[in-house]
Design brief:
Elements lengths: L14 H12 L11 E2 L8 E4 L3 E9 L3 H8 L5 H13 L5 E11 L4 H18 L2 E9 L7 E12 L14 E6 L8 H10 L15 H5 L7 H8 L6 E4 L15 E5 L7 H10 L3 H7 L4 E7 L4 H8 L3 E9 L2 E4 L4 E3 L3
Parallel strand pairs: 4-5, 9-12
Antiparallel strand pairs: 1-2, 2-3, 3-6, 4-6, 7-10, 7-11, 8-10, 9-11, 12-13
Length: about 350
């Protein structure tokens, strides 16, 4: 790596060390409840699974991350609630579950009704977009632990067990359909922010790639894919799905092993990604393993179902590749291959 090249690790987020930290934690989580409702242990899923007999409950939890620092800098909090909801419900639908309920958690140093009022606006809008009930939440005032605001949440989903999408049915020849993202979403924001800071660009500035300020672009809310994805899984056979969040294309590697998820026709990344790459001298490899690069979600399904699915999704999606023999996720045109998560 050249000294001038920015990476996620250089920005302060080391994906490999994060994976090691997760493994250290999960290694201790061996207890399984003895009652009639128990966990379904399927590694690699984007959401937790509980067996209710002929039904399955799902639980997903996540936060907004350092996108909140952009909201704080611009004093604009009315969209981050959408990000909070999206990060959770988009994971929920990866197994075909319908999100039904949500709880939020706000940690704040000093209670501020103007901030929580705006956060509430976004959460309510997101609940409508995802068609979920926001059934509760918590605001914790932690002046000795928190500087500013942190926002996270948990989504509850449900589906019939026979309709569960686990990735086990993925096979060579399956088509990969990508759904367009709305921009950076809520992953890789630390790298984006550090690149802009190093280039002495403020959130109120414009750069040549964008037709609005950098701050407005970064605060674009994460796309919520619930209605589109559930429409697809209720009508056609789907083999597997991927929420393209932290780790970018490496999220594909969580799916069925012994196959390569080959991206032959990537979605054109939004201009903000081109700006970040130019300003930070970031390599293609680092961009695609950090950001969604224009594809926020992916559906893997038998090739014969691709045309019908694309007609349902319209301009929101495109055929981006196929499943072939091999390992990992690759973009041949960019000479990229990610074999581990």
């Amino acid at each position: 790596m050249k000294e001038s090249e920015w990476t996620y690790a250089k920005a302060g987020v080391d994906i490999d060390r994060k994976s090691q930290a997760i493994s250290a934690l999960v290694g201790h989580l061996k207890y399984r409840r003895q009652g009639p409702v128990r966990m379904i242990d399927l590694p690699g899923q984007f959401t937790g699974l509980m067996d209710l007999g002929d039904r399955v409950l799902t639980l997903a939890t996540d936060g907004v991350g350092t996108k909140l620092l952009v909201a704080e800098a611009l004093n604009k909090w009315d969209t981050v609630g959408i990000d909070c909801m999206a990060m959770n419900v988009n994971d929920t639908i990866c197994v075909g579950a319908e999100p039904i309920a949500f709880v939020d958690y706000i940690a704040i140093d000093v209670p501020n009704e103007k901030i929580t009022d705006q956060i509430g606006i976004g959460l309510n809008r997101a609940a409508e977009m995802a068609d979920v009930d926001l059934v509760g939440g918590e605001i914790a005032v932690l002046p000795e632990m928190v500087k500013g605001v942190d926002l996270s949440g948990t989504a509850l989903g449900m589906l019939e067990k026979k309709q569960m999408v686990t990735g086990a049915d993925i096979k060579e020849g399956d088509a990969i359909i990508g759904l367009r993202s709305s921009g950076v979403h809520s992953n890789g924001m630390t790298l984006a922010r550090k690149v802009l800071q190093s280039a002495n660009i403020s959130y109120d500035d414009n750069v040549e790639e964008l037709d609005r300020t950098v701050g407005e672009e970064l605060l674009t809310p994460t796309e919520i894919y619930v209605r589109d994805v559930l429409k697809v899984v209720r009508k056609v056979k789907v083999s597997g799905m991927v929420d393209v969040t932290g780790g970018g294309l490496k999220n594909f590697v969580r799916l069925k092993k012994g196959l390569e998820y080959r991206i032959t026709d990537p979605i054109e990344p939004q201009p903000i990604f081109k700006a970040i790459q130019r300003l930070g001298n970031v390599t293609d490899h680092e961009m695609y393993k950090t950001f969604n690069m224009g594809m926020g979600y992916a559906i893997i399904l038998p090739e014969e179902n691709a045309e019908e699915t694309l007609s349902m999704l319209g301009k929101k999606a495109q055929l981006v590749g196929k499943v072939v023999k091999g390992a990992g996720c690759g973009v041949p045109s960019l000479e990229l291959l990610y074999e581990t998560y």
